[in-house]
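Quick one, tokens below:
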């Protein structure tokens, strides 16, 4: 097989795995089982869905009608805005994998990440059209926008719950317990990280003060 043929096949597999996200959101139990056990998904497609989610959030700030969102751009840090999705996603992936490993969860770290990203598919799928829709509704019709926007979040959350059930081969009750435990684990990790960075900053400040004192005495 030539190099071009391999690239074409690889691209076709990527497109197929990306399209499979549409099957997952309409047939979640079968879809998320096949995603990992039948290897229908890919990390590349998961990364694409994550990028689309981040893009939807940014474009939502920029282009949504002022009736629904009013943004004071000097106060917006776009990198922190992106980190508000990427950082919790990273914590979720690590905590969920770590905790479920202790309780006979079958999913691997990459599978937790991939399934979570696939579960986020409804968000960009709904939010992109809503950006346009927001310019055609009045204040009296704002409930439609609010309901659809909330639906994108609720739908994604429900899909992620089913995804965790399928990849770890848990019953739904076990999955709910695992998700709650993952939430607590994320809080513990955040506390540890804050404590660590606080100690580092205090240590750096201490050595800087010693350096200044030495320079002053010299």
């Amino acid at each position: 097989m030539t190099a071009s043929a391999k690239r074409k096949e690889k691209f076709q597999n990527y497109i197929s795995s990306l399209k499979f996200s549409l099957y997952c959101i309409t047939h979640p139990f079968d879809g998320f089982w096949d995603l990992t056990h039948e290897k229908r998904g890919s990390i590349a497609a998961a990364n694409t869905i994550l990028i689309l989610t981040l893009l939807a959030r940014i474009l939502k700030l920029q282009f949504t009608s002022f009736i629904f969102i009013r943004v004071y751009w000097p106060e917006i840090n776009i990198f922190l805005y992106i980190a508000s999705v990427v950082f919790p996603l990273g914590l979720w992936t690590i905590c969920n994998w770590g905790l479920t490993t202790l309780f006979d969860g079958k999913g691997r770290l990459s599978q937790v990440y991939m399934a979570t990203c696939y579960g986020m598919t409804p968000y960009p799928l709904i939010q992109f059209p809503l950006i346009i829709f927001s310019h055609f509704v009045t204040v009296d019709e704002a409930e439609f926008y609010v309901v659809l926007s909330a639906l994108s979040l609720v739908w994604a959350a429900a899909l992620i719950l089913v995804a965790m059930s399928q990849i770890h081969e848990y019953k739904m009750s076990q999955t709910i317990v695992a998700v709650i435990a993952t939430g607590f684990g994320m809080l513990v990790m955040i506390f540890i990280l804050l404590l660590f960075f606080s100690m580092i900053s205090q240590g750096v400040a201490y050595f800087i003060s010693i350096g200044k004192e030495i320079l002053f005495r010299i």
